[in-house]
Amino acid sequence: MLKQSQMLIPTLREVPSDAEIASHKLLLRAGMARQLASGIYSYLPLALRTLQKIQAIVREEMNRAGGQELLMPAMQPAELWHQTGRWDVYGPELVRLKDRHDRSFALGPTHEEVITSLVRDEINSYKKLPINLYQIQTKFRDEVRPRFGLIRSREFIMKDAYSFDTTQEGLDKNFQAMYDAYTRIFTRVGLNFRAVEADAGAIGGKGTYEFMALCDIGEDTIAYSENGDYAANLEKAEVVYKPSAKPQGDTPAVEKVHTPDVKTIEQLTQALDVEASRIIKSLVYRVDEKLVMVLVRGDHEINEVKLKNLYDATHVGLASEQDILAAIGTPVGFVGPVGVDQEKLEIIADNFVQDVADGVAGANEKDYHLVHVQAGRDFTVSRYADLRNIMEGDECPRGGGLIKFARGVEVGHVFKLGTKYSTAIGATYLDENGRSQPMIMGCYGIGVSRTLAAAIEQNNDEHGIIWPVSIAPFHVHVIPVNAKVEAQRLISEEITEALEAAGVEVLYDDRPERAGVKFKDADLIGLPLRITVSDKASEEGLVEVRVRRTGETHEVKRTELVSFVKSLLARVDSTGAELF
Question: Which residues form the Aminoacyl-transfer RNA synthetases class-II family profile domain (predicted)?
């Protein structure tokens, strides 16, 4: 019997000043987590019980899908990362350290290199493939700005899995098995989620989906079709371009106008009385070691991921003012494509720039802009491509009507890696003909600790957390109104023992606190059911059962309590989602 007086549940009445979002506030107030340093948390007993339940669901579904669990080291030698080129590519988020022999290591943010080297050394024949290996382990990423509690932290718990196949068809089968497993996992956890097309980022690979928990505080924007199944994150979402009819010969000649201290799109629209869609925004990027001028309409935003993918680049970022001055002699804010020598600076543009028939652009001279600018006539573009962020109201690329936006927190990610890591590390197998072939890989991750935070973010009210039954720290909170009354205490203990014997997890609040304090803590902790034991229990044989999610209450006979509680806890639909 777990008595609340003996458990470490340090609830707080006040909201911590550094907590910005509901899940962070409630994790701290409900005594579930405590910060040790920025982005680094201790999980207290209640949180750990929920984490273990999430992990159990993950294990069940991974095993069901054919995964085999192992555990790899968190400390990884730099040599492996040099083999794949990621030691430099991953950037400052990689936590690096040296041992006493001055050998370089990293604390693993992910385990592609380690798992690939392990499989390389242990499997060499097609007869031992396919295989899918996974682990649940602490990961480390030195986030530049840890925030939102467990949503973006520097140390976190993750499930990462890796499949190895001999054919693309085998990878497709493993990928679909993981996609389906993730759908079951997040449904069982009780999340409102959506799988969206995504960019692979530093992991690499093609065929990528993110599983997003939908919530207003999400750092990711999801673009989805109002009438279809299309969904993608903002980095990945394709923009449909249909050429418009261009006016022929009716745009006046280019004219230079004086625009002192007018540098931004907003300033230009006011100073020249033009719509932002007529402005050609010109930004100079450093793409690896090359400088590129990228053009988009003034009402659009450049998508740097699309730019990076267009060049298959490793690094993409805005060029420094010194770089721009050296290349075209122009200060930032007055850069434009007219007169630029493409031998020195390549010009590329988003598809929609070619429809700007009477545009405004920087004059490549301080305090001046050009009006009546037209692509093709006044400047040349080396290539057009989809280089902008999609916008609400744009056409869906899959024919599902118009695009709408939602916010989400990434809780899972599935990748088709192909042979990127197996080729770099030498993970090969001998095929039926005795020929050496690179293994074809997939990668599949779930943020376990982030899933806990996302569940709280989606399930709370002004009083506290509202746990889904499947991951609640306990199922039932038993509270005697006055623990000093022996009859209430004895009945509460009897109820707790009977429920536990029936497989129900119970937290028994035996503290000598006022009933109001206990009820506030119960709402804050948010267990699915609360059983209140008052004098009615001894006098009339009745106890009150309250459902946390709906607030509905029932007076139940003590003799019928166990079966009633079990029937409430079993109220789920055919998908496993809870109805209360």
Answer: 34-468
How far from 117 is each of 81, 162, 168, 228, 427, CA to CA, in Å? 11, 12, 21, 42, 7
Nearest-5° angle of CA 238, CA 223, CA 199? 55
Per-residue pLDDT reduced to its tens digit, 208-248: 899 999 998 888 899 999 888 899 999 989 999 988 766 55
Which tokens hold the place of 473? 């720290």
The CATH-assigned architecture of domain 474-569 is: 3-Layer(aba) Sandwich (3.40)
Q: How many CB atoms lie within 10 A of CB 91?
A: 11
Mean predicted confidence (pLDDT) in 128-146: 95
Looking at 1.20.120.790, 3.30.930.10, 1.10.760.10, 3.90.1150.10, the CATH number of the domain 43-238+404-457 comes to 3.30.930.10
- Does residue 576 have a pLDDT over 50? no
Distance CA 544, CA 553 (A): 7
Q: How far is CA 432 from CA 119, 124, 420, in A?
A: 19, 12, 23
